[in-house]
Amino acid sequence: MKAILIGAVESTRIALECLAKAPEWDLSAVLTLPPELDARHSDFVDLGPEAASAGAQLVHVSNINSEDALASISAIAPDYIFVIGWSQLCGPRFMSSARQAVIGYHPAPLPRLRGRGVIPWTILLEEPITASTLFRIDEGTDSGPILAQRFFHVAPDETAASLYANHMGALRTMMPAMLHDLAQGTAIETVQDERHATFAARRRPEDGRIDWSEAAKDIWRVVRACGDPYPGAWTFLGSDRIVISTAHLVPLSQHRAAIQGQVVERTADSFTVKCGDDEGLRVSQWRRTKDGPPPLHAILGQKDAMP
To answer: Among 79, 147, 181, 184, which is least packed by CB within 10 angstroms?
Structure first.
């Protein structure tokens, strides 16, 4: 089977690895973003070395529906196209470029959570169980028949990084068997039940701004959902921006006489912020535009307030 892979993130790299190892498959080309557009994905991966090792042509494209991209695909005439780790929708001409089908991957238990930003949304919605899904792309949004799906639990303290890693492990486990079944013509497609479909809206870096009037557990959830490999949860310290990477909940009954968002404790390697209830958030990893820890008693979240 002749294949083309399209993507630019870690899931793309795993798919490339699986395709390269599959004896029934010939990975002819990898279409990916040019390096100057790496900011389009916060988890961008340079696929050049892996493509070269697999003997696949590396083609840089910014739009898979462009004439140049379509010409490159047409010249190869692939049996299957794998779109894994690519955010653009597939146009009609692109969809017709594969002799057999276009296959996609989604880090959610389709038909639940179709759409964008689903790893952060999984944590923000406190989903107890999730799944990685391989499916045939159709005219809808993540609505095509399911080819493989692997479920797993979401821990109460799950972070974007740990959930991302779990999804990558699931993809690596699922894909070899699916590739074999596709090559043998024995793949089973399961139509999605539209009654259970839900949709996740796109998330932007500004959505990670912390509202210190919320309960500490809700702020902690935002920190966990928005962290690496995503831009992070953040707040203001005067005109400076602080991105909070790691934090945990602490009781603050002794600090009731403090303002929401105020730094009430500080050590050499952490600081604690009062939230909208009697709990606080102890921050142990963060980064700032300016060097140095936040001053004690500073009020976070007010852009123009003096630090």
So the answer is: 184
